[in-house]
Task: structure prediction
Amino acid sequence: MDKSSFLKSQLEEGLREHEVMRDHTTMHVGGVADFYFEAKTTDDIIKAVDAALEIQIPYVILGIGSNVIFSDFGFPGLVIRNLTSNTAFMMEKSQVIVDSGVILQKLILDCVSHSLAGLEFMFGIPGTVGGAIYGDAGANGQAIGDYVKSVTLLVPGEDGEKSKVEQYPAEWFEFSYRKTKLKAMAGYNKPVILSVKIQLAQSRQEEIMRRLNVWKNKRMNNYPTGFSAGSFFKNPVPAGFESMPTGRKNMPQLPKERTAGYMLEKSGAKKLHQGGARVSAKHANFIINTEDAKADDIRKLAEQMRDSVRNKFDITLEEEVEYVGQW
Ligand SMILES: Cc1cc2nc3c(=O)[nH]c(=O)nc-3n(C[C@H](O)[C@H](O)[C@H](O)COP(=O)(O)OP(=O)(O)OC[C@H]3O[C@@H](n4cnc5c(N)ncnc54)[C@H](O)[C@@H]3O)c2cc1C
Result:
């Protein structure tokens, strides 16, 4: 049986061939993935991963694609779009167990209706819970890793073995600024986050909503709209704090002059553009796809931005976003 027939026999409904990835990322670039599957349940994810392992093709799991740039040449394997959606609150412990495909924004609003506080500083960050854990997403000096108790992972089997579902404590992830052990693993066929246990705290709904609105307004005033992948580069982490673990209360607040956005602005990056992509006039660390940019335009523009900061500040910026596929 060929690969396509095998995948169809295993995944049936939800499997598509030759899917354009541009339609599944917030940057709106990217070529064709050989196979694309919408996983509605954890069992769907397990089936998809095992099928890819069986026929030895690469797989990658995708949330809403808000932190990835797919190549114009697409992805030579199976893209698994995560649409899992269960949430269970354990009120006596102020905890929630949530599927990795749940949209972060929805989770935060569900927490408000259960009078559970903690994640409101993330309100407005696009994406799924799984994507947020993978990259330790955060804002305003806080990050999701600070709230994680444990994670259920699907670990791919080696040498033709099936994948295994295993639980890991938060410490396993080595959460630090926009970095986790999972993100640091090379290549494709990485473990998949299936669900997450998050520790929250009881609070009054009005108080949670008040905080949530503060973050929401701050975001609306500072962040550009349009097709983007959010902040393109990470802020350079001060020496000695590269692997600051969870509970980052001791992480020094970066002075404004040390942020990627400030350095990009001061090195003239706001003037840069390439093909249909340009640096946002509102925030120099955002690349906006204004006119049907290619992934290649985005990558070339990112190189120009990195060069401009290197030339002026002698600092080499590192991407926060990830490049996926064949480049
Ligand atoms: C306008 C805008 C504003 C943003 N603001 C912020 C911000 O303030 N702070 C911030 O941290 N980020 C921000 N981002 C970036 C982005 O929203 C986050 O990184 C988000 O957490 C990505 O989630 P996602 O579901 O879209 O992941 P995707 O982009 O789909 O995937 C990102 C990576 O995570 C992996 N992944 C996804 N799900 C899983 C899973 N279940 N198991 C294992 N790996 C998985 C993918 O394989 C990929 O490598 C912003 C983006 C945009 C477009």
About this structure: The chain has a mean pLDDT of 93. The chain is about 25% helix and 25% strand.
